[in-house]
Predict the 3D structure of the following.
Amino acid sequence: MKNRLLILMAIVLTATSLIAGWSLADKLLLINGAGATFPYPLYSKWFYEYTKIDPTVNFNYQAIGSGGGIRQIAAQTVDFGASDGALTDEQLKQAPGELFHIPMTAGAVVITYNLPQVKERLKFSPDVVADIYLGKVKRWNDPRIVKDNAGVTLPGEPIVVAHRSDGSGTTNIFTDYLSSVSDNWKTKVGKGTSVNWPVGLGGKGNEGVAGLVKQTPGAIGYVELAYAVKNNLPYADIKNTAGNFITPSIQSTTEAVNGKINSMPADFRVSLVNPDGKDAYPIAGLTWILVYKNQTDKEKGKKIVEFLRWAITDGQKYSADLLYAPLPESLVKKIQEKIDQIRY
Amino acid sequence: MKIKFVDTGFKKATTLIALIVVALTLLLVYNMATNAIPSIQKLGARFLFTSTWDPVKEDFGALPFIYGTIVSSFLALLIAVPVSLGIAVYLAELAPQFIRQPLSFLVELLAAIPSVVYGLWGIFGLAPFLRSTIQPFLSRYLGFLPIFKGEFYGVSMFTAGIILSFMIIPTISSVSREVFLAVPFTQREAALALGATSWEKIRLAVLGYSRSGVLGAIILGLGRALGETMAVTMVIGNRPEISASLFAPSYTMASVIANEFTEATSNMYLSALIEIGLVLFFVTLLVNITARVLVWKVTNKVEGGIRE
Amino acid sequence: MNFYKKRKIVNRLMCSLAFLCAFLTLVPLLSIFGYVVSKGITSINLDFFIHLPKPVGESGGGMGNAIVGTLILIGLSCIWAIPVGICGGVYLSEFGNNKLGTIVRFTADVLNGVPSIVIGIFAYTLFVVPMKSFSAISGGFALGIIMIPTIMRTTEEMLILVPRTIREAALALGISQFRTTISIVLKTALPGIMTGILLAIARIAGETAPLLFTALGNRFWQRGLTQPIAALPLQIFAYAISPFDDWHRQAWAGALVLIVMVFLMSFISRFVIARRYKFLRSS
């Protein structure tokens, strides 16, 4: 009797789950995307809000890292990719179709740290950041850190460097910056979505790095601004090319976008690192959604285009709340022209 | 006539399905091997013996991962083996009858806990505990040893080894227990008749007789530790570096695949990761075969057989 | 006399050490259980079971889709792994007393030892790449491979335990071997086989590694089996390594649900079915 009951249970369970799976496969379209963790808070907000605007489509976005976004869109295992590192020319050539980079928002990469005893906001010069990540500056009370932070008592604790363990656009922006400020970094490590780190602990995703910093006293890490703010992690001012220490914020990130807007190439593959402008934050980057110019699925292509149009216009109003810099009007216009070229 | 027809059909059908399992396994090996070819061709044996992991320059050396996997697994064995043998001895020889069943069930529950839950507990329970309590103690009294030198961040080889030991205790103890129970009662009776205490009985009759079986149990545990992914990924620190200190972060073969597989941007990179998977496959294969042979030797021994 | 005393002391010491080991193991078990229950229980409410996850920064929401996802994945893997496992087991016990049987038995043991992450890679290359999509099917395939060896070997062991005389009696009545195996041998051994199946399900319910690059995860309710699918362990992993306190709480709640599911299955298989099986064997 018990056996029969169990078998019955098993059958019912299997059947209901499968029926549930199939029956729901109705009109509702699921569009899959994967990639950058950098804009994940904004994207998850967007996709959540967008279900209210167009209830016939769900956008499932998995934050697996920019490297993953590039990989999976090239392998066509997802409908769109997302990355905050632009594809290289070679990667574009290898992709099975023409890929568009659609800028969605701009963000700042901040240097965050875990020093409970320090209340003031720390300041860093570019070369010091590079040397911390090269393992040359080892302790928090190193004279070069002290020099930039007059009046702050720094502990003698060792610096625990945290970095990304996965392929990441945040890493791309950060290493791009380090390469531009330190020749030593440029020759020894270089820039990329994953690099061979000289020192430190690896965390998976922006979340992973923020998590590591949060759980490890004496840690330093680089994360997207929103991650630091949402987690009440402190973040440092960085000296920009004009010689000013700039606090990362929406304002100073927008300044960075403006500093590059005149040199924006037609495919939007631009680095925002070290922009002109005396108030511009130096470690910023655009983040892109990667879509094929020629969409193979008519229905999905249409919905993706509709979403992209919404995101760069109405969607931008959610940016500021989550500490991303809204795209400037002039840029939005250029992007719209690009979106119009997508065929489905 | 009809019966015969049905029966041959039946035999053929089950044979076919059994062969599917074999085919799947072969396909697995073939699939992995073909996908790893670019990396094997480009890097050759260097892959196994160098320690640069540089996706930018596409130079891959798996040594730190191999090292991390081996050291974390052996650390786990170091802790798990004595404890598991203690449990097995207690359960098979010493415990009062009424306690055996519930206790062995509880130990097996330890095996039922999903790896990801171990990881979660590792991050928020074990790592802070080690950092605040165990590590200061070890550093103070044993800090002169190179294995306990350096800073401790909570996530480390040490943490991973401890978590792994909890995960393999059930495997080692339950197999050892079975091996102990397979020791013929005549052996124990002989020892007792000669005036042995219960410990002497266990040492001479039980442990002596089941030595290779216990070794098999240990190696089975090793097999599980080598392939364990999630819990280790969450607590080991993910840093491809060979360091003498157990407090340093490390990386294992399984965790590098878990972290980087979906994100490998170039084909070379992906191929290198698959090659790591292939290496892991063959290592665990070897370990498991050794273990099976050893366990099989004991449990299939003729009853009452005399040993050495 | 002195020698005798020493032996007695050693005896006491070793026996207490063994006792200590046995109870020492309960410490991590209780600690894990304590953590999961105390941190998870506060976030368990109806919402947790029926709602979708909320975007970062908004509190509330649940793991309803992940729980359903895990059930669908279990269903998918059972659909193919149980028949294959049982048939394979039948082959091993009824016809497997030869070279091929040894090979099959050996392969099953090999497959049982393959790290689950490697099976994930296999499913990725076999399903995800050609289908051009992460999917529930590929996840179910990977989990099924993990189940098969366990089911196969328990089926074999249970069938071998069925007394020869029963088979002979049936065959002597002129019943075909097919009917004998199906309606007599398998039926007798069924409770034991169910134990194996339940244990296999308990194992895959908590598997994360093979799902990372097959099921991928999904933040919405499941629509169809060729889509990425959410799973409880995947969600716990993603939330555990995140820095958001809100997500940590959800991860603990998810862990509680998962652990209760898994323990329940272990418990049922061990006590209810095992007891019934013992009864059958003795009668």
Summary: The longest strand of chain B covers residues 53-54.
